[in-house]
Write a structure and sequence with these properties.
The protein is an alpha+beta fold. It is globular and about 60 Å long.
């Protein structure tokens, strides 16, 4: 799939050309994780779902104005063995994600931490699997975590909580094109909104929080009223073709890395999305 870019400048053209010629080494992508949080769509057939999406503020350096799923980079603290864990073993996640058990554990921890920071949704609970009970102290913990005054391990341990890894379904892996100066190696997970929880975007990470049906979001992108990045729209298209949350969350897919390429042809910039990605626009 070829996507003509509506943004283009001389500096990016130089980067694309230099990397293609071997004169510039692409930056190493940072490990990242993102979560597609699902809930039943109101006033729709039982299988219909909505996906939580956050609109990135215009001032952000990466993808300003785009609607994205909660997520972000893996931090060193995400590898802390003190983060309580319940569910499938990290080695099992490593087999699904194509990485070591240690890397998989950090990716899952980052996915849960970032989702909590950015949306307030906490995929954690008691060691017996019981769901977390949201209260004002959890909102305070979220603010402290975002400010860096507490660690995620402390947020959980002080409340007797553990990360519920079984709530996460590995879904995809997308790597930012080599010519981009900011690159991410992002693993995508799907999860259901836990009972009793509500999503509220963090002001620094989102200027709008929305629950959208996948097909409706794709149509908005098609008409130009919503900006979606290729991994986002591809994932929404996959969800729209399935039979609801049960089918999505019950999937065990073979996850292979997908890395689009940026090229310059006749003075125009194009994004080439590999054929294995079912890109609908």
């Amino acid at each position: 799939m070829r996507i003509q870019l509506n943004w283009f400048d001389e500096r990016m053209a130089e980067r694309i050309t230099a990397i293609a010629a071997g004169r510039l080494v692409p930056p190493v992508p940072r490990d990242a994780a993102t979560v597609m949080v699902l809930r039943p769509a109101p006033d729709q057939p039982a299988a219909a779902v909505e996906v939580l999406m956050l609109r990135r503020p215009a001032a952000m350096a990466f993808a300003p104005g785009a609607y994205v799923f909660p997520g972000g980079s893996v931090d060193a603290a995400d590898g802390d063995p003190g983060i309580g864990w319940s569910g499938p073993d990290p080695a099992e996640f490593g087999e699904w994600l194509g990485c070591s058990a240690q890397e998989a554990r950090a990716l899952v921890c980052a996915a849960v931490r970032e989702t909590f920071e950015e949306s307030g949704v906490l995929l954690a609970g008691g060691p017996d699997g019981s769901p977390v009970v949201p209260d004002a102290s959890l909102d305070e913990a979220r603010a402290a975590l975002a400010a860096g005054s507490v660690t995620f391990a402390e947020v959980l341990s002080r409340r007797g909580l553990v990360l519920l890894a079984g709530l996460l379904t590995p879904w995809a892996r997308w790597i930012t094109p080599e010519a981009e100066p900011r690159r991410f190696d992002a693993r995508f997970f799907a999860a259901a909104l836990p009972p009793g929880q509500h999503a509220v975007g963090h002001h620094a990470e989102a200027d709008r929080t929305a629950w959208l049906r996948p097909a409706a979001a794709i149509e908005a992108a098609r008409t130009g009223s919503m900006m979606l990045l290729p991994p986002t729209v591809t994932t929404l298209h996959e969800f729209a073709g399935l039979g609801g949350a049960a089918e999505i969350l019950g999937s065990r897919r073979a996850i292979a890395p997908i890395m689009p390429r940026l090229v310059v042809e006749d003075g125009e910039a194009w994004l080439l999305v590999p054929g294995e990605a079912d890109y609908p626009l």
